[in-house]
Design a protein that fits this description.
alpha+beta
Length: 401
């Protein structure tokens, strides 16, 4: 399939959405309209459709209520969500626990030596080619992306006011620096190229859209007023209208008056639901268009899930939230996912329909994911990722593309 095909699908989807919207089909209580997709789409395609979608540009910062307002009614979810890897996906480098816990980190490749030194107030990043002070450069780190569950990467600015990506990243399994994924250079032309990669405005918008909330307002990146991390409104949409509607309902003695004022992603159809998470984690088409290959694609769980034979045309039992609650940190105990596996593969002897409930494993019904969603090692990330392509895996087999 080509982009022409996805564009055609997108056009059909928009046309159907427009007709249905006129008929009032999507005015579901508590749900800000999102159009239905007829097939998996790229994130750029989804962003062109009517309705809210993650990473979307919003007209005004005033449309956001902030996580504290959400916590007034959703205290437990708000409290746990802000502690997750998504909730802490970005922070000012000065506040990085990792940097303060590792006050001096070094990394060397050939003649180039990299160092990050962290003091009480800031972290200084420097690179030298080993030939003297005149051939070295340094900068103060400004942003840290990632809580460090796997890694943490850094951005800084130069005197020109533009953003630059550090050529090195902290990796938790190494407890030290190494090349930022896909940024290794065997023979940089000079110290500057060895130190950083310039970031264009479009890339900055994309990076912050997935690591922060409300970072692009009216088509402009707003570094000063963004909300750190992926907070409530990054996935549920700007909440000012919802808060006002709920407050009005409370004053009137009603239980709810929020129709069309907030997004509930759980109500999306399965294909849209996985694409929704894929806005930041990589939809099937996002990965295809990017040319992603090999074990690096394991980082894009939505893409790999939709590569599964059992995905078919979409199944509510196979969406991201069927296994993961975005309001709590991802679970690492394999047995915690057995319940989800057994919803499709019930234990032997229980009633089931062959077409929709394939038979259970003949030998076991525990720790299913250890065999059917094996971990694969990504050398760029120095980490083993769970491969979400559900299958009968065989030891020693090549990574299935």
């Amino acid at each position: 399939m080509s982009r022409v095909r996805t564009e055609l699908l997108r056009s059909i989807s928009i046309s159907i959405w427009s007709i249905a919207a006129v008929a009032g089909m999507f005015l579901v209580p508590g749900f800000l309209a999102c159009p239905p997709a007829l097939a998996q789409l790229s994130t750029s395609d989804h962003l062109e459709e009517p309705g809210f979608w993650p990473t979307q540009n919003v007209a005004s910062r005033d449309q956001f209520a902030g996580a504290a307002a959400c916590a007034n009614c959703h205290a437990a979810k708000s409290a746990s969500q802000k502690q997750t890897s998504m909730g802490t996906a970005s922070l000012h480098a000065d506040d990085s626990v990792i940097l303060h816990a590792h006050p001096k980190m070094n990394f060397a490749v050939g003649s180039y030596h990299y160092e990050i030194k962290t003091g009480a107030k800031e972290s200084s990043y420097s690179v030298t080619d080993g030939t003297g002070a005149s051939n070295s450069t340094n900068a103060t780190l400004l942003w840290a992306f990632g809580i460090g569950r796997v890694a943490q990467s850094y951005l800084f600015k130069k005197d020109d006011g533009n953003f630059y990506e550090s050529r090195v990243t902290f990796f938790t399994n190494l407890q030290n620096l190494n090349f930022t994924p896909a940024r290794a250079l065997a023979s940089p032309k000079d110290v500057a190229e060895a130190m950083y990669r310039p970031l264009g405005s479009a890339e900055i918008v994309r990076c912050f859209a997935c690591h922060t909330t409300a970072s692009t307002i009216g088509g402009q990146f707003d570094e000063k007023n963004l909300i750190l991390g992926v907070s409530c409104e990054a996935c549920h949409g700007p909440g000012v209208k919802h808060v006002a509607a709920m407050q009005a309902a409370a004053l009137a003695g009603a239980t709810e008056n929020s129709a069309g004022t907030i997004v509930n992603p759980a109500r999306l159809n399965p294909v849209d639901m996985v694409d929704f998470c894929g806005a930041c984690h990589g939809t099937w088409w996002d990965v295809k268009f990017s040319g992603g290959k090999g074990v690096a694609t394991a980082r894009s769980a939505p893409f790999r899930l939709e590569e599964s034979k059992c995905w078919g045309k979409g199944d509510a039992r196979l969406t991201c939230i069927a296994c993961h609650d975005p309001h709590v940190e991802v679970r690492t105990d394999p047995s915690s996912y057995d319940r989800a596996c057994l919803s499709c593969h019930p234990a032997s002897g229980t009633p089931k329909t062959a077409a929709t409930h394939p038979s259970a494993h003949p030998a076991r019904t525990k720790d299913c994911v250890t065999c059917h969603m094996p971990k694969v090692y990504d050398p760029d990330m120095h980490y083993k990722f769970t491969d979400h392509r559900i299958r009968i895996a065989h030891e020693g087999e090549a990574y299935p593309e």
